[in-house]
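Cont'd.
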Amino acid sequence: MDYGLDTKSTRLKTFNTIFIITWLLIACFPFIWTFWGSFKVRADFFSRSDWWYAISAFNTLIETGGQFTTNAYTQAWTEGEFWKASKNTIIVTVFVVSISLFLGTLGAYALSRSTEKYAFWILMAALIFRAMPHITLVSGYLFPFFELQIWGILPTTIVVLVAINQPFTLWLLYSFFKTVPKELDESALIDGCSYFQAFRHIIMPVMWPGVITAGLFSLMLAYNDFTVTALLLNQENHTMVPKIQSYLGTNQHEGNLMWAVSAVVSATAPLFMLVMFFQRQVISGLTAGAVKG
Amino acid sequence: MPNKTFFWFFLPTGLAMILFIGLPIISTGIQSFYAQHDQVVKEVKKCDPFGCTVSIVVDNEETSKIREAKPLGKFNGFGTYTDRNHLAVEEIKKFWNETESFGAFVDQVTNLPFYKALIFTLTYCLFVTPNVLLLGFIIALSLNAVARKIRGPLIFGTILPMIVTPLVGSLVLFWMIDSQGIIGANIQNLMNDPYLSLKSSKTLTWITIIIYGIWHHSPFAFVVFYAALQTVPQEPIEAAIIDGASRFQRIKHIVLPHIYPVVTFVALISLMDNFRVFEPIIGFSAEGSAQSLSWLIYDNLVNEEVILFGSAAATSMMTIIGIAILLAPVLIRTWKEFKTAR
């Protein structure tokens, strides 16, 4: 705490610095290490004989003639069809984000402006829905989806992800809408706007920070999902995360484990960039429910 | 807002939630009372010059006919719930009568698949949740004492473990602690035990997954606590400093009471998330020694021969009951607050 009266001893300051550096190492080193290792051959990154090979690139030099190799990336993206998986991920993410924002803003606005009892109960129901493990829902989907023959295709997965995402989006946007003063839309209503016009022209323009935050979280859910995409999509339509898992399963192929490593890096890098740019929104989203409500 | 307007605004999202969260829960409930059909067998008489033999083979045609006619399977009532792979009522009775000591009985019971998974899930929740709260709080306090200018990048580094998907997060760690990875290989060298590896010991696997859980969830607790710390009023703290309160006393008597509601919020969310632990088991390929409830359902659903809808649904229903028990205190409290508010 940065108060004038609060003087910290040098010992405390040193201890604090050491603690933060240690924690940051624990938090970040695994990613840095995987990134570094993805440019090596398997015999270096997963070395039985000497872990130092991963740094000195002993086998990479023998096998490829250079310190670094991008073989794992080129193979995973072409032979491993990771390009297809990333294409699917992009489709799923774009649709999930736009649809869940559309549904979520309408619903959350209504909830935040309603004084009725049922609004409270709907929020409670959303909380219970939020707590459902996704796999229990998937076990409910599979059988009907097989029967209706809509299993395995992208649109089904998109709709399911939107629905699973709604409870959280509703809570998040609800707490944001609550911070927009009621007088704003009330005066618009008096001026003769309909509720929808007030929502569209008065409230939405001041809601962009909240919408961006909610969008980011929908994006992270759709992008990161494993449970739903792995079980509801067929091999052809797999998104990135189930694709990574499929590289792990087939161990007979020498190169496959390195495919997984490079795929992990390829899938994580855009996410990190995004969070770097929108760090403030992510944090405000995580705290919106807790601090304000 | 008038009811009618509310209805139209809420209809799309409400419909999505009813269709894809409400109905699936009901569908799971129905499926849990059915079991997959037995295979139809027929006797085939085979005669050769040395005599005739009767063998029993699966009649694939008949089997698929029955499956088509009744895709849901045969009605099984609570049969799936009580069978060996779930509550195992028969087995427990048997163990109770046959085993000598209570310890042996517990041993036997915890070897049954459902109880094994339940115990792992609960152990995971029990160890991860408090540690996440503690570590998150310490990191928040510690970052809060750093100069404002460099906090941005530090926060970014801190939240990295949280934003990657659990599968990727656990893989990244697994590749380091595996016997061929940087940490695993070095530990083997240090201990001088070439067979020491994650997979060789159940306890080690459990500890690894729990440590992973703490690593993955602490950033969330950190972010919320950090934001809450920004709202702590300064005057009482300054007064406490003048009165000579130590740093620890200030945290205990001023900061903690102020952020208490946030602590319960984080505890609730992280309990809910920890209860569905599943992806790290796949990431660490720890199926052998650690199984969670969610993993059991997944395993039934990816079964190679026949998808065990009934079995998966029964485990799902019991998981949902587990979640309800976890959430009950919160819901009751909110209900009471709501009633007094009226």
